[in-house]
């Protein structure tokens, strides 16, 4: 390999990093923006390069532009600046804190260390509750993280499973910059909201303790401690103290139960929580009783935290001249440190990474390929009973009664995965029309699986194919149609209904989404 020009630097990027949207910035402060890590209720998170970092492994940072509703009024910026300064002073691996921030920028932004791992919400949804040792490590790690925040007078205000990143070295509390208002938190699910927060109260240490209890209960059992249902029903159970911890590890039950006390004054302090969880671990392992503190927490994490390995990051070379010219940074993918495999496209907003140009020989179809193509064409001609469609509520004449207008759609590339949820509108725009619109009725007994739209984000259940797995009734689905956003759905028609000219009957619906 020729010696690298001084205008190129290497950076390790996560596999499958999502491309930038056309309007995304190419630079934020001193950072070169490479791709999207995701978008949430408080802003958009980008993978970016710190070109000044001498260490290739640390060059990747996560930069978040803050666009949350809580920051619409600029008079909130001084408080944001104070909060970010307090967070910047924190020295704990359990909390993801800002490296650099700029609250004078529009929008304000902060850069954080890139934190690899899997969100607790995904982990538990996929694999069920954590085993006893890992659960104790999670419980004590989160309690330590929260107490470090509280020591700097910062209440998290939004602790929930999707804000806990499980990394190779332990859990990390994310998204500490902006504490969402109670009304916005209700949209994330009532389970993690203490009764006083649900009623509109401000974030507080006691509310964080409640959220800790709910998160640990969920992590230990794989179920929501106050059950499922409408937000108000869950909140009512929380206010009554009717939680179900029957499947939680017995040692943790008393402390989690106290944390979920509806009365904030009766909840334990984090000091008590940490002490109690450490004592449970020491008792279960006949470990010598060391003083509860950071060292003992590290010992628990070392012993109990294992088997969470994020996918290996991929070395890439970033050419600096692209960004110097105000264009998107050029990214080149290296394989085994020797050959450049992909051409990055400069300045077009199009991602070039991972694209390999076909060789001339690839243009000549083999006999086998031609036969495959013919069979595919024949199959295409036969009418499919299961297709992917776009259902846009704004196109419906009668969203309550139907029949519903659907448009068949198609998507060439693989859905973006693990990059946070895009908006429904963006997701829908990724699909091309692939046929004439048709009309369909929805069978009242249709099976409906949804990914995201009909539920709070923390109740999202997504299967390995990134479809929905949360079951709702056809009636609930139709009700949703009257006010919901555009959706991409895999639908199955009743075969007989495909024979006549009238509307087809949909007997199965699965939302196709990503998270
Ligand atoms: N420091 C980081 N390192 C790596 N990925 C990050 C980092 N911070 C955030 N992300 C990722 O960026 C995405 C968006 O995160 P963000 O916290 O803004 O939104 P969210 O948690 O999905 O939603 P909400 O803000 O509504 O809670 C998530 O996939 C998250 O895992």
TrEMBL record:
Residues 31-280 form the Protein kinase domain. InterPro entries: Kinase-like_dom_sf, Prot_kinase_dom, Protein_kinase_ATP_BS. PROSITE patterns: PROTEIN_KINASE_ATP (PS00107), PROTEIN_KINASE_DOM (PS50011). Residues 367-376 have a biased composition (Low complexity). ATP binds at residue 64. Pfam families: Pkinase. The keyword Cell division does not apply. Keywords: ATP-binding, Kinase, Membrane, Nucleotide-binding, Serine/threonine-protein kinase, Transferase, Transmembrane, Transmembrane helix. The keyword Nucleotidyltransferase does not apply. The chain crosses the membrane at residues 332-353. Residues 361-419 are annotated as: Disordered. Gene3D superfamilies: Phosphorylase Kinase, domain 1 (3.30.200.20), Transferase(Phosphotransferase) domain 1 (1.10.510.10). One of its GO terms (molecular function) is protein serine/threonine kinase activity. This is Serine/threonine protein kinase.
